[in-house]
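Priority: medium. Attachment 1 of 2:
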């Protein structure tokens, strides 16, 4: 009898294994505005992202054009997925045509900000959203940097601007994602890369992959990135929306999906 009581006592004292640290899934995708067959592409993108159910989706080249009868593409996608939408553009809300970046979240949005990136004639923005991920705040910045190969100095200015936005708004955990138009190890990105991990590159060093679709005339390069700030550890990463579905190419960029683990 005493042996049975002792065994029961020992079982009761055995500590349960610690719960695994939570993760956050992020996708970034250049939407290619309304090029090609947008309604067909929207269906493919929505189906794929709906199956993935990432916590956060970062979009670039988001277009709204009332003259064409085109609703804001991020809001259309967000409505289909049931995600909150944060959209930022240099074009004011009273303009018929607006072009910019967006953050979609399936978690509550606590705060938003945005900033124009220099030079102002380049019409670039960085959008910020603070999200409540299961009770943990996560700051997300979406951006799309200058596109010309010789524009490294311009991109350097833009990186400085988005880092200033981060310093003003972000807490302990943050992510910067988007279309940077250069590889993650480009010199102009080093101020960001020094503070954050290129999630895909960390997990697939030296991988010869392209986020640009070669069949649409692009030179293969990996220029779409998710940078994970301090304390967020890249756990998995892959390309998504990479191939045609039913003859429909989702975009001229492939999406990047990453899973980050909290501390």
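Attachment 2 of 2:
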């Amino acid at each position: 009898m005493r042996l049975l009581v002792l065994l029961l006592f020992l079982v009761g004292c055995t500590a349960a294994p610690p719960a695994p640290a939570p993760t956050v899934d992020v996708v970034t995708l250049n939407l290619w505005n309304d090029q090609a067959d947008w309604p067909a592409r929207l269906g493919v993108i929505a189906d794929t992202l709906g199956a993935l159910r990432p916590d956060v989706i970062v979009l670039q080249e988001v277009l709204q054009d009332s003259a064409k009868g085109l609703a804001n593409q991020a809001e259309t996608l967000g409505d289909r997925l049931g995600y909150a939408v944060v959209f930022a553009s240099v074009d004011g809300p009273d303009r018929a045509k607006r072009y910019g970046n967006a953050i979609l979240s399936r978690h509550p949005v606590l705060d938003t900000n945005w900033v124009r990136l220099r030079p102002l004639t380049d019409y670039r923005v960085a959008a910020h959203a603070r999200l409540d991920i299961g009770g943990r705040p996560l700051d997300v910045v979406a951006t799309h940097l200058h596109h010309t190969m010789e524009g490294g100095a311009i991109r350097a200015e833009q990186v400085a601007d988005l880092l200033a936005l981060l310093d003003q708004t972000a807490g302990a955990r943050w992510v910067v994602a988007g279309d940077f138009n250069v590889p993650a190890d480009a010199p102009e990105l080093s101020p960001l890369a020094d503070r954050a991990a290129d999630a895909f590159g960390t997990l697939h060093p030296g991988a010869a992959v392209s986020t640009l679709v070669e069949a649409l005339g692009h030179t293969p390069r990996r220029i779409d990135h998710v940078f994970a700030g301090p304390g967020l550890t890249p756990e998995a990463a892959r390309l998504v929306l990479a191939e045609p579905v039913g003859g429909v190419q989702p975009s001229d960029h492939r999406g990047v999906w990453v899973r980050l683990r909290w501390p």
